[in-house]
Prior knowledge:
Blueprint: H1 35-46, E1 52-57, H2 63-76, E2 81-84, H3 111-122, E3 132-135, H4 143-158, E4 165-171, H5 178-185, E5 189-193, H6 199-210, H7 216-226, H8 230-243, E6 246-249, E7 252-255, H9 270-273, H10 277-289, E8 292-293, H11 294-298, H12 303-311, E9 315-320, E10 323-328, H13 331-339, H14 343-359, H15 367-379, H16 384-396, H17 400-411, H18 417-429, H19 433-446, H20 450-468, H21 471-485, H22 489-501, H23 505-515, H24 536-552, H25 555-570, H26 583-594, H27 598-611, H28 617-634, H29 637-653, H30 657-672, H31 697-709, H32 713-729, H33 733-746, H34 751-764, H35 770-781, H36 790-802, H37 806-822, H38 826-840, H39 854-857, H40 862-872, H41 877-884, H42 888-902, H43 907-915
Parallel strand pairs: 1-4, 1-5, 2-3, 3-4
Antiparallel strand pairs: 6-7, 8-10, 9-10
Amino acid sequence: MTDDGRALPPGGTPLSPNGTPLPLNGTPLPFTGRHAELERLRAGLRRPGCRGVVVTGEGGVGKSRLAAEFADEAAAHHHRTVRLPVSEAASHVPLAAFAPHLTGPALPGELGPHFQELRRLLAVPAGRPRTLLLVDDLHHLDASSLTLLSALATDAATAPAPGFFLLATLPQDAAWPEALRSLWHQDAVEHLRVGPLDRAATARLLADTLGAPVTAPAVRALWDAGRGNALWTREILRAAVREGTLRPVDEVWCLTGPLDDTPLDAPAEGRFRALPEDRRTLLRLLALCGPIGLADALARVTPEALAGLEEEDLVVVTEDDRRSRVQLAHPWHALLLRRGTPRLLARSLLLEQAGRVREYGARRRGDALSLARWELDATGTADPGLLVRAAGHALDDGDVDTMCRLARAALAQGPHVVAGLLLGEGLGQRGEFGESIPVLERAFAEARAPGEVESAAAALSQHHLYGLGDAVAAFGVLDRAADRIGTRPALTACRAGLLSAVGRNDEAAAVLALAEGADPKPGGDDPGGARAAWTQADVLLLQAHLRVRLAAGRVDEAVRTGRHAYAVQCGLADRWTAYYPARSLYLVAAALLESGRLDEAERTALEGQEAMRDAVPALTVWFAWVRGRIALERGLVTDALAHFREARALARLCGQAFAEQRALAGLVLAAAHTGRLAPEAEALAPAAAPYTPLCRPDTLRAHGWVLLLRGAAGPARDLMLDAARAALSHGEATAATALLHDVVRWGASGPAHEEARTELVAATALVQGTLAEVRAAHAAAVTRAGGPDPAALEAVAERMDALGLHLYAAEAFGEAAAEWRRRGRAASAARAAARALARRGHCQEAATPALAGAAAAVPLSARERDIALMAARGRTSREIAEAYVLSVRTVENHLGRIYRKLGVTGRADLADVLLA
């Protein structure tokens, strides 16, 4: 059975979420990520002066696959394709590669006749495409075949007409045959270097292979492990799926643990076994310990031997903080080497390296973490003080699994408050609240110093709320802590943050105002100038201010506060109360979004994802969520659905009920923007209980769209208006403006709609930023005396479009078109509707009520729309005629009708209408 209960097919082959067997055992992975390389090969084949291309790259990068795919494509386009069977085993057999293509026996002494026969074979028949000769692994060609191939290539290059086209592959540093090198100097042969796949291409490869999206943390981990090498990515992927380290959650593939110890099917490479013992031992040490100092490496091998390993691309030497370090060149080698290292040898190597670091004084950053890991791996235990310090370093690195392991080992030797805090936090990040809350309760009970008490209370309260959705228990923890140590800044910050999170933002603001009235600034406004003065409690207060300001509509202030919090937290030495600096960045991204700065919001969200060197499970949810919100505001509905699905899968994986509801609300809302009712809508928290932790304004917003799709427009408006008024009454102006603007976007008339317009104008006055301004302008444009003002709507649409709010712009142009049509201005209506459809083209599958009438308002047939778009993009009438197999006169007649229907005079006006 799979993790979600589906049966495995015969043989135990894993299934994709759609039920088809995964291509993981013996079948090639999908071919993707090589569009640019294929285009280079196509261009070479088309260029008469190009007689061939030599493809080079490191082993496993996909040279052979690229060549084979191109050969198949060429054959499909009627190029005769000749493939030479080349292998290392046959490299000592004379003419082994050409023998299958010769009519008689292959005789090394008869190269002349063989040359003539092969020349005829490769000749290009009159009127036919060029013949393609594929030689994969050219370096394994036997000497006689290489001589023959060189003669054929030279002959073809000197022929007046293009002869056969040679496509050969070589390892990255292999020597070229002299004939091909000479042809390259003459520009008759091109050199195509094939590098590893980048992360985006790896993400596409993984999704195509697995038949479903893969979360960003999983893509990053697999890319880091395989470094874009297609062969090793395949092997790591197969092992991760087989071991359950990578599994589908709600049809999204998620990583459930680290890849470090994933057992690979691939055998250890022969070059490891063939190495001298001292060099192989050094590689094993690097696999076990990671990077080590150059001096430590040279204590095991000679400089010449180390240089040899570097030349063989087995190790690299880097500079880190003015220190030379040696590490394995390829992460996947560590997986193989660790698997092949005997247990006693591993123990000896780990303890020996730990001893060396201790001899140096263990003063460098990261030494404590390295020592603790090595000693724990070797002996199963270590000094508890060292383990706790090391767990703190793992926290700094965002390595949750290592943090849990080290903290658990420390607690095994006796009570330790900080170890309990670290273990509890890590378990909560992994969604193991059944264990994390008792661990934190013990740490809370054992804590004596006020700082320890407030740290335990902060973590415990957040686990109750965000993990279990239990606000009563969360606030109860803070009350118990206050009874023990009084009101302290960290407790105040936690209370304010939790109040804001559950929709009581007005109370949160009051708590902060009573506590201080302003941001904490012990040492000046510059966090870098007096970092020693900043504490974890200060960071918590800054983050509470960030949440409150974001909810209250003070979004520009929230951006500044959030960036301030991030800078301060990055400089803290201890973080067992205020964890993970990147936490501030997803809120900054949300504030930038609400301010109308969509590009900055997207960059900040990506910055936050990259700032987590290792994926922190519960935190990755929120970056996927905020990216979904950004995509939805842009009108990229399909992208938004993908982000929200990822967020929901991650939330379910790590047991975050609070985050799961937020992601679910986004998913249902995005689906509604395509005109579809998502089946997941049934899992939304009930709309009858606003301002519970699991039913926030975005959940109510999703419920409103669901009612609208079910035809209950009146109840939908009532729900949205009630939710907006409740949000305003609790100090949540940001959420209120989104709710009210949706009602305005739905259109229609009547008292409820008029109230929404009026209340939106009032609410946006409380919210900073250009997004609120255009929402207010939109409401004003549809509340003019005598009906909506179509010219004002078009002006608003242009402002929205400039902000990247393409869906809103399309809707506003559609409203303008409807109003122009009502006023009898057919040409103006057609122009506005055409602009609506042009903006809708940026919005993937969007199908909202305001867009419904836009298509009908453009009086063009499908053929006319296509011709109009081609003309607007600068294509000539002749080019359009050739594309549609029409006469130029027919195209001109079509364009004349299009100009009259749209009320324009020519191509320039057409471009303004359709492409502006």
